[in-house]
Every structure is written in C-alpha cells, then in structure tokens.
C-alpha cells in the first residue's frame, strides 16, 4: 500500500497543482457574468482523464505495446503549450482585469489552459494507473486482498494530491497576488522542465545523438525528479510568507477608524491567513516526507538473521528436526576446508519435507535469503522463492546439496559443502 | 466574434486530439505489424546473424520497443564478434516469465535485459550453423556504473547470470533488472561455453567437429551505455 501511495501521490501532484493554479489565475466573474470559456478547463481535465484511462487500459491489455508512440507527440505539444500557458499566467493580471473588454484574450487563455491540463493529465496519469495493473501477474486473480490494499494506497495517493492542492488554494485570498502568481509561474516552469525531460528521454533512446554533456544534463534532470516535485510544493512558501505578513499587518485593535464589524473581519482575515500558511507548510512537509522517508521505507535494506548453532563432528553436520520444524527460515554458517565462510538454509515445507540449500543462488551469488510474510525472498533480486522448488537447481533457487534425514535429524556431509565454497567467494 | 473564437478553440482541441489519435493509429498499426516483424527477425536469426534480431526495433512500426545497449543515438543493436559468437545486447519493457521464481517480477523491474548470442563462421567448426542460437551457455552479467567504476548500487539484479528463455522472436539469454538511476554504464558479459553445463562434442573422424569449446570465459563489454529509465 505504501509503495502505491509513494508512487501515486507524487505522480498526481503536478496535475492537481496545475489545475488548482490555473483555476485561481484565470477564474473571473460570478454567476452569469462568466466567460463562455470558463468551463473549458474542466473539459480539458475530463478529456485528459478519459483519454488517460483509455490509454492505460490499452497499454495494460497490450493492445498498444509502446507508450512512446503516443507520449512523443503529446510531449511535443505539452512543452509548447507549457510555455504558452506560462505566458498566460504571467499576463493573467492584465487578462482578467476588465476581461469583458477583451473577451477574446480571456478565451484564448482558457483554451491554452484547457489544452495544458488535458495534456498534463494525459501524460501523467497512465503511469499512475498502470501502477495498479502491473501487479496483476498473467493468469493470477485480480480481486485479492493484496490488490485491495494496493487500490487503497492508490486512492489515498490521489486524495493526498488533491488535498495538498486544495490547501495551497486557500492562500489565494490571503497572500498578495504577486506572491501567488510567482509561485504558480515557478511551479509551471518546473512542470515545463519535467515535460522537456520526458521528451528528451524519448529522443535520447531513439535516434538523437546526444553529446556527453547533454546526456549528463538529462540524467541529472531524471535523477532529480523527486527534488523537482518537492520544489513544486516549496515554491508555495512565497505566498505562505506573504500570507503570514498580510495576516500580521492586519490591525485588530486600537483602530479608531474601524467599527466592530470591520475589526472582527480583520481578525478573521488574520486567523485565515495564518492558518492557510501553517497548513500549507504542513502540506509541504507531508510531500517531502512522502518522497524521502516514505520512499526510503519501501526500499529498506534487509539484514540477514544471524546463523544458528548446530553440532559438527567428524565431517558431519547434524541439525535436529526440532530446531527447524517450525516452518520458518533457519540459517547456519560453516567454515569450509579452504577457509571460506559459507551459509546454508533449512526450512520445513508444507508437505513436511525439508527445503535445504546454500544461502546463495546461481543468479545472485551469496546475497542470501530472508523471510517476509511467510515467503522466502532473495535479498538481491527480491524474488519470492516458491517453497516447493527449494532443493531444486536453477534460477534464484538456493543452490542444492546432498543431505540425509532420519532418526529425527538432518545430516550433511561437510565435504559436500566444501565442494560448493566457490559460491561464497 | 464569439463564433470565431469557438472555431479557434475547436481547431486547437481537434488538432491536439488528432495528434494523439494519429499517434494511437500508429501504435495500433505497429501492433498489427508485430507478428510480421517478429517473424522476420526469427527467420533472420535462423539464417543470417548479420541482421541482428529486431534490428531497428526502436524504429517506429516495430513490435515491442527494444533499445540497444550503447551510447545515445544507437539506433541498432551493436553486435560484437567474440570467438565463435556474435553477441548483441538490448533492453526493453520488463517481462513476466514462467516459472515465476527464476527472476525479478516485471512489476519490480525497470527493464528486461537481453543478450542475443548466435554462432558466427567460427561456430561452424563446433557443429553449429552460422546464425544459430547457441544454447546452454552460462552468461554472467554485471552492470558497472562508469561514474564510480564499480558495480551499480541501489538497483536489483544488476548482476547475476542470465537465464535462457524463449520470446516471440526466438530464444535468448535475459533477466529483468531494476535500475532507476539514469547514467552512463558499462555492461560486462562473461560467457562460459556449453561444456560447463555438460554439453559434449563428437571428436571421431567420421562425425566429429573440428573445433573445441573455449575453456576460459569469453568476455564481451558494451561500453558507454547511456541509460535513462523509460516509460514502456
């Protein structure tokens, strides 16, 4: 669930922020006194959303087998429209002031915003939606409790993005306009860089010959995507500070010119301004935590459990059933004749037989195995090993070796272990 | 005036949709051509190794999108001749395989790394046809981060032994790999002969082959691999 959350939230944050920003910057009028283009942005969102779902479905079902074919033209359009939309945002004070006098400009700004929203949503969402479907393995059932948890992580991730954008939106009336406009412009500039990076990624993998410096720049941009997402939220520190300043500037006592009602209004504004800034700060910290602590939690390094004691005499290792019959993974250490420190594992399988092998496989070397949620997992490639296949050769299975069971114990000839010491070098 | 603006908006939206739909059309067409392209590559592999399997698959119109392991702008698989082998390396979307416990799941991986290894003229002396897939090799691989000169860190299955497997375009050696960090890498392959897995050769004068299997692993390096993670 956490894995889906830490992928989905950052993936949907940019579209959520963009929709919120463009709504704040380009909304004019009330009731009937609104331009006919006021709903175009909503249409942009709906078209982008439906197209993204259809595209993700076609990709998940392998009807379309290359996303690049679609993403390439989408990104070309997106980088152009990003710049146009950025210009519209910077010019928004002039466009929205007395908009009835230049309706055409208002419509063009809304049209550009609608196309940008559609393209951004269409590009960002399939990656997020496919997060759910990639976990369904061929011929595996879809509706499992694991899938339910993943879906929950998915929904929470989308909800968190919307909440973050909604919190930042509260500063639209408490911060001075230039502060909010600056944050929006910076957020959109970062979005442009993200789209440009996506476009360059496609070109780099196709035919375009990059110089080393160009590739290093591209690699830097790709490797710092998380930092860019965090920056997209931290730019809202500008209106947050402006909001706090405006709140504290608001006079609430000893103002002879104001009546009680006006003073109450000032007090309410101060409260609102400080609350908006404080909640925005909380949202920024939440996004940062998701991208740092949350991601780190999904990529935890595993420490292998310590080896257990066993009897070793006359070239025979003996382990009683009672020590290993609990169905859990048991690890043992052995120093080979050539001095190599080796490990082997024993686990009782479902049928009552014992799965015995080196704590190493042919694919991943001596990385070792650990137990998680009843599964035996390779520390290096994180493959969950089928218990039934432990004891068989190949793939990421523990390297098998001869052993005997009887008289309530497992006996292993150390010479058999000595012969396999190369797996631990 | 209103009508003009509505028309303008209509053109804008229609334009962007047309772009997307045209792209969809392309991909559908590419999907349709998958079988043909794969058939070609399989037969090419069987008859002539000089045309690397799915060469130019990164081109529009091919099936799934293969990217050659090599510097930026490498449009085709860079085959290397090494002893009796012609070795190519490409990567593409992560793949689910069976049996499932033999490698990383597609959901956990960034790409599927593949070594296409076929016999060349020298392989004829070992009894293979030129261009034949060579089975039962032990292909160990390591991805080295050029910025540190060491094996890449932070990934999964970035080194190990390729498994042999069949795809729609024929047999190959491969593994799913998790590597999220863009950078310049080096792919090192160390290929042990089929003798390591007990493959035998006829040596009598009537039915025997002229050559002998190599005894030291054949090392092949794909250098300056400018890798950027992809949306597949």
Named at the architecture level, the CATH assignment of chain B is Sandwich
Quaternary status of these chains?
Answer: heterodimer
Strand content of chain A: 5-15%
- Helix percent of chain B reads 10-25%
Rg of chain A to the nearest angstrom? 30 Å
* N- to C-terminal distance of chain A: 38 Å
Q: Kindly, what is the distance between the CA atoms of the first and last residues of chain B, rounded to a whole number of angstroms?
A: 45 Å
Structural class of chain A: alpha+beta
Which pair of chains has the greatest number of interface residues, and how are they split between the two chains? A-B, 70 and 59 residues
Unreliable residue runs of chain B = 1-62
Question: SSE string of chain B, helix = H, strand = E?
Answer: HEEEEEEEEEEE
Q: Mean pLDDT score of chain B, rounded?
A: 75
Order of helices and strands of chain A: HHHHHHHHHHHEEHEEEEEEEEH
Family (chain B): Belongs to the UPF0423 family.
Keywords (chain B): Signal
Protein name (chain B): Amino acid ABC transporter substrate-binding protein
Organism (chain B): Bifidobacterium vespertilionis
Note down, in words, how this protein is organized.
The complex is a heterodimer of chains A (425) and B (232). With 425 residues, chain A is of the alpha+beta class. Chain A folds into two domains: 2-298, no CATH class; 311-424, Rieske Iron-sulfur Protein (3-layer Sandwich), CATH 2.102.10.10. Chain A is 57% helix and 11% strand. Chain A has helices at residues 2-26, 40-60, 68-90, 92-96, 103-133, 145-169, 177-205, 212-223, 225-234, 237-249, 260-298, 321-324, 414-418, and strands at 311-313, 316-320, 330-335, 341-348, 354-358, 369-372, 375-378, 384-385, 404-406, 409-413. In chain A, the strands form three sheets. Chain A has a four-stranded antiparallel sheet. Chain A has a three-stranded antiparallel sheet with strand order 3-4-5. The longest helix of chain A has 39 residues, at 260-298. The mean pLDDT of chain A is 87. Chain B is α+β, with helices and mostly antiparallel strands. In chain B, a hairpin with a 2-residue loop joins strand 8 (163-167) and strand 9 (170-177). The model of chain B is unreliable at 1-62 (pLDDT under 50). At the A-B interface, helix 2, helix 3, helix 5, helix 7 and helix 8 of A face helix 1 and strand 7 of B.
């Amino acid at each position: 669930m956490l894995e889906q959350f830490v992928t989905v939230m950052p993936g949907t944050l940019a579209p959520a922020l963009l929709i919120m920003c463009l709504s704040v910057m380009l909304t004019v009028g009330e009731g009937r006194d609104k331009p006919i283009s006021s709903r175009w942005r909503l249409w942009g969102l709906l078209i982008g959303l439906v197209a993204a779902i259809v595209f993700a479905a076609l990709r998940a079902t392998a009807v379309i087998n290359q996303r690049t074919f679609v993403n390439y033209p989408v990104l070309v359009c997106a980088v152009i429209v990003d710049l146009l939309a950025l210009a519209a945002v910077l010019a928004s004070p002039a466009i929205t002031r007395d908009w009835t006098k230049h309706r055409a400009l208002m419509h063009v700004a809304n049209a550009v915003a609608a196309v940008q929203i559609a393209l951004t949503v269409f590009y960002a969402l399939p990656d997020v939606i496919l997060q759910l479907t990639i976990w369904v393995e061929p011929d595996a059932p879809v509706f499992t409790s694991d899938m339910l948890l993943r879906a929950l992580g998915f929904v929470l991730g989308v909800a968190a993005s919307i909440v973050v954008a909604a919190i930042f939106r509260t500063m639209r009336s408490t911060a001075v306009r230039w502060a909010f406009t600056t944050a929006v412009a910076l957020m959109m500039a970062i979005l442009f860089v993200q789209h440009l990076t996506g476009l360059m990624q496609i070109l780099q993998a196709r035919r375009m010959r990059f110089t080393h410096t160009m590739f290093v720049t591209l690699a830097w941009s790709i490797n710092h995507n998380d930092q860019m997402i965090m920056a997209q939220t931290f730019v809202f520190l500008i209106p947050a500070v402006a909001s706090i300043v405006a709140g504290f500037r608001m006079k609430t006592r000893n103002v002879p010119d104001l009546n009680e009602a006006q003073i109450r209004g000032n007090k309410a504004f101060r409260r609102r301004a400080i609350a908006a800034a404080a909640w925005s700060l909380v949202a920024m910290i939440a996004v940062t935590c998701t991208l740092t602590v949350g991601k780190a939690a999904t990529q935890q390094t595993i420490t292998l459990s310590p080896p257990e004691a066993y009897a070793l005499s006359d070239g025979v290792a003996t382990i009683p059933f009672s020590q290993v019959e609990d169905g859990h993974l048991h690890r043992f250490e052995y120093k080979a004749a050539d001095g190599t420190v080796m490990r082997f594992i024993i686990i009782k399988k479902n049928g009552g037989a014992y799965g015995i092998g080196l704590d190493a496989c042919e694919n991943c070397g001596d990385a070792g195995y650990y137990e998680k949620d009843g599964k035996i997992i390779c520390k290096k490639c994180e493959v969950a090993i089928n218990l039934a296949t432990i004891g068989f050769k190949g793939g990421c299975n523990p390297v098998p070796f001869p052993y005997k069971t009887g008289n309530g114990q497992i006996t292993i000839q150390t010479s058999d272990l000595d012969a396999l010491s190369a797996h631990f070098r | 005036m209103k009508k003009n603006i509505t028309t303008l908006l209509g053109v804008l939206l229609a334009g962007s949709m047309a772009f997307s739909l045209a792209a969809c059309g392309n991909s559908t067409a590419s999907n349709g051509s998958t079988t043909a392209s794969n058939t070609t590559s399989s037969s090419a592999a069987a008859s002539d190794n000089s045309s690397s399997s799915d060469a130019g698959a990164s081109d529009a119109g091919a099936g799934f999108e293969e990217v050659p392991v090599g510097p930026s702008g490498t449009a085709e698989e860079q085959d290397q001749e090494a002893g009796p082998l012609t070795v190519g390396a490409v990567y593409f979307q992560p793949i689910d395989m069976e049996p499932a416990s033999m490698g990383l799941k597609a959901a956990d991986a960034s790409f599927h790394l593949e070594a296409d290894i076929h016999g060349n003229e020298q392989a004829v002396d070992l009894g293979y046809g030129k261009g034949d897939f060579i089975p039962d090799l032990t292909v160990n691989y390591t991805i080295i981060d050029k910025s540190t000169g060491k094996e890449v860190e932070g990934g999964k299955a970035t080194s190990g032994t390729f498994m042999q497997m069949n795809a729609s375009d024929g047999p190959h050696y491969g593994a799913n790999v998790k590597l999220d960090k863009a950078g310049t890498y080096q792919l090192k392959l160390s290929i042990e002969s089929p003798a390591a897995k007990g493959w035998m050769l006829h040596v009598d004068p009537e039915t025997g082959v002229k050559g002998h299997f190599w005894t030291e692993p054949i090392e092949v390096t794909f250098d300056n691999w400018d890798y950027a993670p992809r949306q597949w």
